[in-house]
Write a structure and sequence with these properties.
By secondary structure, the protein is an alpha+beta fold. It is built from twelve helices and eleven strands.
Length: about 325
């Protein structure tokens, strides 16, 4: 499978053929509709897709730009020369670079055998990871800053993990699952990504560069609490667990995320409800109870407000009986 993947990635795509034939610059309209060069996830992801991979275009310098998503550069083969913020460095085969929405970077042209895989990830994809976090660390802080897109702080994390076999194996599995998807690929990829993030946390000593770490332990703990206790979570219970006044905690959460505790809790409950409607045959009343709502009429109203369909019509639309 590995040899087949490398052979496929070596093939020229249409953009690369154009670069070799006409020595053109990067066509910004392929990546953004904005005046400033901010690469848009909408150019690559449809509304229902949270994560995808794309081979980085070789043979051309890629000018300074930002993204409106989290990007992870993975050097599948060769190397990658780039400037991130004010730092110049070279990623070697097997290295990883996490970039949030606000960090600017530019890349030197890659040669024929420099194969770079770009992971394009909506920040909210990582909301599930907070259930696995037990301590504050560089990666959890990075995800909090990226998940809540209001701080405008540019951040990156450079993992020199080419020698860590567990991480390399998981990345290859994720890439192959995305390149050759099966019926269970969406669930499989999410599982692999969870394991991948845990392995990265185990190897934070391999982080070579970082910026604007910030301290977000209270927010990480709050998000973890919502992930684990969404059915009966309350601000007062969380405040008691964190030994903080509820009004002070409420302000912290709002300031850090731009959302109230109630809004974050409702978002989690609706996400779980949607997954249960898609993947189980539980009755709607059972789902309402399982996620913690007491008023079924209210649930119908907020669900339709979020997804555009009543729960029943959404279930009919997705084909789950």
């Amino acid at each position: 499978m590995g040899a087949d993947l490398f052979t496929e990635l070596l093939q020229l795509n249409d953009e690369e053929k154009l670069m070799l034939q006409q020595k053109k610059e990067v066509k910004k309209e392929l990546y953004t509709s904005q005046e400033h060069f901010i690469v848009e996830s909408e150019k690559f992801l449809n509304n229902n897709t949270m994560i995808m991979i794309r081979k980085h275009t070789r043979f051309v310098d890629f000018p300074k730009h930002k993204h409106n998503y989290i990007e992870v550069n993975y050097v599948y083969n060769g190397e990658l020369h780039q400037t991130v913020g004010t730092e110049n460095f070279t990623l070697k085969k097997g290295d990883l670079l996490f970039l949030n929405q606000h960090i600017e970077h530019e890349l030197k042209a890659c040669g024929e055998e420099d194969i770079i895989i770009n992971f394009i990830i909506r920040p909210e994809f990582f909301s599930f990871i907070f259930s696995y976090l037990t301590t504050e660390n560089l990666l959890s802080n990075f995800l909090v800053n990226s998940l809540f897109n209001h701080t405008q702080n540019g951040q990156y994390l450079y993992f020199a993990v080419s020698k860590v076999e567990s991480i390399q194996e998981l990345i290859k599995k994720i890439i192959e699952e995305m390149m050759w998807p099966s019926m269970m690929s969406e669930s499989t990829i999410k599982l692999y990504m969870g394991l991948f993030m845990i392995e990265l946390i185990k190897h934070l000593d391999k982080v070579k560069y970082k910026e604007n770490d910030g301290k977000h332990q209270t927010i990480v703990e709050s998000l973890k609490y919502i992930e684990e206790h969404y059915k009966d979570a309350t601000l007062y219970d969380l405040a008691n667990r964190l030994k903080q006044p509820h009004y002070a905690l409420s302000k912290q959460i709002k300031k850090a995320t731009n959302y109230t505790f109630k809004e974050l809790l409702q978002e989690k409950r609706l996400t779980v409800s949607k997954e249960l409607l898609e993947n189980t045959s539980l009755s709607i009343s059972a789902i309402v109870e399982q996620v913690g709502y007491e008023n079924i009429s209210y649930f119908y109203r907020v669900f339709k407000g979020k997804y555009g369909y009543t729960p029943k019509k959404y279930r009919d639309k997705t084909g789950q009986k």
